[in-house]
Amino acid sequence: MDDARRERLRAWLAHAAGDPALGVATAERLAGGAIQQNWGLTVRFGDGREDRWVLRTDNAATLAASHGRIEEYALLRAAHDAGVTVATPLFACPDAEVLGAPFLVMRRVDGIAAAHRVVKWEAVGGGREQAARAMGRELARIHAIRPPRQDLPFLGTPPDDPCLAFCEAQERALDAARDPHPILEWGLRHLRRTAPAPLAAVLCHNDFRTGNILWTDTHLAAVLDWEFAAWGDPHADLGWLCARCWRFGNLAMEAGGVGPRAALYAGYREAGGELPDPERVAWWELAAHLRWATIALAQGERHLSGREPSLELALTPHIVPELEWHLLAEVARREALAERAA
Amino acid sequence: MSPALERPDAAELLAAARAAVLDDLLPALPEPHRLVARMVANAIGIASRRIAVNPARLAAVEARAAALTGASDEPLAALATLIRRGACDPGTDRHRATAELLAELARLRCETSAPKTLAGG
Hints:
Strand content of chain A: 5-15%
Shape of chain B: elongated
Number of strands of chain A: 9
Number of domains of chain A: 3
Structural class of chain A: alpha+beta
CATH topology of the largest domain in chain A: Transferase(Phosphotransferase), domain 1
Radius of gyration of chain B: 20 Å
Oligomer: heterodimer
Strand order of the largest sheet of chain A: 1-2-3-5-4
Helix content of chain B: over 70%
Strand content of chain B: under 5%
Shape of chain A: globular
Order of helices and strands of chain B: HHHHHH
Largest sheet of chain A: 5 strands, antiparallel
Helix content of chain A: 40-55%
Number of strands of chain B: 0
Number of helices of chain A: 12
CATH class of the largest domain in chain A: Mainly Alpha
């Protein structure tokens, strides 16, 4: 961050915090975030106190499906008010003149999110059982946020049929891809044929998975990355978290490679969630493979289009064949079950 | 392989480059750059497997798709369209042949992009 931008930021933060003497002692770029830029700030107030904040702003090209920082701030506020464990949201700046793009500021929370470390960590969140329970409680609190909400107008009208709406969105994503993907179409067609009946929509985080949850060795420290949140079927979040493709190799721990599924569901019930329907969760676990695949294709397109050349983005679509492999196996298993039942 | 061009060939050079990244560069790099080095090695690995794919196998998959769909032009796109329309659903004549073709296509794609998957990883 150059001196001019840093001074504009300082002045804006001083005004927002109501402390003209506020200073920015350090500003460092944080790792992670294919979509956002994250900055760690140490601020010093006029009275000498210090605080550590995180500033989130957008990179040049963003995924069409993701919210901007101002919307993410509104979601964080709603989640915070509903008792979800998030970094305390502090300010949002819609004015692109300050940093070149809108940004939000929240209090910094310490912890570990890196998925490959988290799934190998026996003490995660106080132990695997406790960690899975904690995730269940967070999801139940998120799902207690129901439409209509005047503070979340950008989420639009809730879908009458969240499963069908998902299938339609995936069709559009496959249509936007450069090449045909018959295996993904096969999975999508199976999902369409076996979609469960509509449920009333609730707020879904839509990226609640290992890697987006901050942990210490005693507790769940924060639920991160709210930019995909939308009205939907609450089982979508449970399926995304439990899907094989998001267990990071620790397949036995069905709740995100972190802990047991039963503990996840117990925590979900404990915080007021309805008992999850295993059939619905299974549908959404299969759906998770398709959705991750189409996200990976969209990330690859950012590289292929020349808009954002990046080795990381170039490699991402190469996850698709592995997702297809597991998707084919799961469709075959489900078709065999249906045939036996018929 | 044509003797008109010098050895090592593309596959041999890529293998040597990948080994140099993993064995020589990676241990010497500070942590923030290690991920990039691993991505470079991964990209070289995928590229090496991709140039080793037997074109006859790709042609055979496309020929099977053409036979299934009746479309000699862009048969995989035609197959995708038929699947979406439900023309390959369980209970249809095409179902079994489509499932078998997709299994072979998935294997081919994993051999290039994700060989560990085929080993059960």
